[in-house]
Specification:
Elements: H1 7-15, E1 42-52, H2 60-78, E2 84-90, E3 102-103, H3 121-141, E4 144-146, E5 150-155, H4 163-175, E6 177-182, E7 200-203, H5 208-221
Parallel strand pairs: 1-2, 1-4, 1-5, 5-6, 6-7
Antiparallel strand pairs: 2-3
Length: 223
């Protein structure tokens, strides 16, 4: 007898392409019915955009601001000459559409939508690390030279860093450059576990998107 899978667990799996077709096999990076396949030879970057809170705040205005900042980051990365960035934006309500990373700049209306049933941050960290490794492998198989992956997390209110979250976060931090963006009112709430590896924390301001994109480019390309 197969155990029931929690709704949020299944949703995260869909977001990250870990549930596939009718036979249960994962879809390839391009996904079913899409022509936005793996990048060809050239320099590529992989960026995960997270929008998070700790479930204690109503988050409506903060969530909208976080979406705007992350959209700005993506737009500036898309305009970077000499490198093609691929992006995953989490969470999102259109599960099937997030089975693959997309080209930066091809924004989708369903990206970064706050899930009605809450967000399991440690599970998202763990699943994202798995998806990141798979995405990197597929890009490299297509002949791309891939820079160090990056994660940009806008925290409306920083998530709590319990033991499980801190462990999963530490694993992801070993694999990727992580940059946080937080409102000034939430800066003092950042858990030390989220900056223990030298992660950058940007206080949200009118040009936060520019600053974060610069940090991502410099950290992943060495420029």
């Amino acid at each position: 007898m197969t155990a029931a899978v929690p709704r949020m667990t299944r949703r995260i799996a869909f977001w990250l392409g870990q549930e596939g077709g009718p036979d249960g096999a994962p879809y390839p990076l391009g996904g079913p019915g899409h022509d936005d396949g793996p990048a060809g030879p050239g320099l590529s970057g992989l960026v995960f955009l997270f929008l998070a809170d700790d479930q204690r705040s109503d988050g409506s205005s903060g969530w909208r601001r976080g979406r705007k900042v992350l959209r700005d980051v993506e737009a500036r990365l898309a305009a970077t000459p000499g490198i093609a960035y691929r992006v995953r934006a989490l969470p999102g309500r259109d599960a099937g559409a997030l089975r693959k990373p997309r080209q930066a700049g091809r924004w989708a209306r369903w990206a970064l939508r706050r899930p009605a049933d809450g967000m399991d941050f440690p599970r998202m960290l763990a699943s994202s690390r798995t998806a990141m490794r798979r995405d990197l492998a597929v890009l490299r198989q297509g002949g791309a030279i891939v820079t160090r992956p990056a994660v940009v997390c806008y925290a409306v209110t920083p998530p709590l860093a319990d033991a499980i979250t801190a462990e999963e976060y530490g694993r992801l931090a070993r694999d990727a450059l992580i940059t946080w963006v937080v409102p000034e009112s939430s800066a003092a709430l950042m858990p030390p576990a989220f900056t223990a590896s030298g992660e950058q924390v940007v206080i949200d301001h009118y040009a936060a998107g520019d600053e974060v994109a610069h940090l991502v480019r410099g950290g992943t390309r060495g420029c």
